[in-house]
Amino acid sequence: MQQDIRKLLKDYKAENIELPLNHSSKFQDLLEKEMHQHTSKKKNFKWLSVVASVMLIICLATKFYPTKKIDAPVKNESKEISLGSISPEFETIETYYNNSISLKISELEMTDQNKEIIDGYLLKIGELTKEYKSLTKELNTNGVNDSIIDALISNLQLRLQLLKRLQKQLKRVKNLNTKQNESQIL
Question: 102, 104, 155, 182: which could form a disulfide with 163 (CB 3.0–4.6 Å)?
Fold first, then answer.
């Protein structure tokens, strides 16, 4: 098919077409009509750009305008003391226990059979967490005290021990269930 079109185009001769004398004036008139229609749309964009500029100036003025709050002296509020803020060693201990507790909780697999056991342990751990928070408040009110620090560390240890005990108990329950299933199959 490409060859056929080429053969047809070889024989084709372009005709000389002359444009009318007023062709350029007609074209110019059409062009002006087209240009005038677009100018009304540009006015809308100009209006929006003016509004955007005014809004930008207002925002910058309110941001950098000095107020009494900036000039007022900043009060030094004491930071809340926690076990980790006492020393780097205590921070390491607190981080270790909190991460271990979170890991043990995330490893728990809750089923219908072990739901009651897990709920009981998590209730005890919740109570220990509340006690830990109250010990932290006591640390803030009474100051750093060896007995409070020992109580905080033993609280973390007890929570981790409870979770380890829970995991052992869940393994026993799982083993009992598998043994019962095996005996029923036989």
Answer: 104
pLDDT tens, position by position, 52-71 = 888 888 877 777 776 655 44
Distance CA 148, CA 132 (A): 10
Distant-in-sequence, close-in-space partners of 145: CB < 8 Å, separation ≥ 6: 139
87 SS3 class: coil
How many CB atoms are closer than 10 A to CB 139? 21
Residue 68: C-alpha distances to residues 29, 62, 74, 107 (Å):
63, 13, 12, 53
Contacts of 80 (CB under 8 A, 6+ apart): 136, 140
The helix/strand/coil state of 19 is coil
Write out pLDDT tens, residues 132-181: 999 888 888 888 888 888 998 899 999 989 989 988 988 888 888 777 76
Nearest CA among 159, 86, 76 for reference residue 122: 159
Per-residue confidence band for 33, with pLDDT thresholds at 50, 70 and 90: confident
Q: Check: CB of residue 149 under 8 Å from CB of residue 86.
A: yes
